[in-house]
Design goal:
Length: 244
């Protein structure tokens, strides 16, 4: 293939822009903010799970307190009823039975109140745990939001750079011969780099030196001949600085 030497030299600019676009895409995939977000998301899930567990334990303790309060109320209601019966009864036998029941109810009330006090103390401690767990969730969510904000800023910068480079690329390809551009694009798609500067005896795309026979052939080639590297297949662009 033949192509105007000036058009071939433009391929070096195009390859430079493409390399920058590749770096931008690589940077986009490997942003440190992405790893930070992943870590923060795992932390948020763990902290939320811990909060749910702590809240569930607190709810269980509250139900236990409610149950004990209900039993205490029942005992006190029974005591109140027995007092009324003691005040109205004239039977010594019934009075004695009521006194025994009152003693049992008093012991039961004391036991329930002791149990309730112990559960209420545990509930108070669990409320502190829930508060700490909620604070941990808020802190983790804040860290995630910060990481996402940093990611968004980094992506916005990359988008801006990409837009500039893409505009430069459009301007470059619009002035290239179609057959030369198609060859460049095909090589780039297959090998990653479509063209490189040839200097001395080295391909600028793969950085490998050509052998003596190939070098002699390159020196003899017409200025408009499109030369390709035997190693990487890239177009080797010759300029006055190539040293041929």
């Amino acid at each position: 293939m033949k192509a105007d030497p000036a058009a071939q030299r433009k391929l070096l600019e195009l390859a430079k822009v493409d390399a920058e676009l590749n770096r931008i895409n690589h940077r986009r995939r490997t942003l440190p903010e992405l790893e930070r977000i992943g870590t923060a998301e795992r932390e948020v899930r763990e902290k939320r799970d811990a909060l749910v567990s702590a809240q569930t334990s607190l709810d269980d303790l509250q139900r236990e307190v409610d149950r004990l309060e209900s039993e205490v109320d029942q005992v006190r209601s029974r005591q109140q009823r027995d007092r009324q019966m003691m005040d109205s009864t004239g039977s010594s036998k019934q009075l004695e039975d009521l006194e025994h029941e009152m003693q049992s109810l008093s012991r039961r009330e004391a036991e329930l109140e002791d149990d309730m006090l112990e559960v209420m103390e545990r509930r108070e401690a669990q409320e502190t745990d829930v508060s700490h767990a909620r604070e941990a969730v808020n802190a983790a969510e804040s860290e995630l939001a910060d990481a996402q904000h940093s990611r968004d800023e980094a992506v916005a910068d990359l988008d801006s750079d990409e837009a500039k480079r893409s505009a430069e690329r459009e301007a470059l390809v619009s002035g290239l011969p179609e057959d030369l551009l198609n060859l460049y694009e095909r090589i780039r798609a297959q090998r990653g780099t479509g063209a490189g500067f040839f200097q001395g005896s080295r391909c600028g795309a793969c950085r490998l030196e050509v052998d003596r026979a190939a070098l002699a052939s390159i020196r003899e080639a017409a200025e408009d001949e499109v030369i390709r590297c035997e190693e990487c297949g890239a177009i080797m662009v010759r300029t006055k600085e190539s040293g041929l």
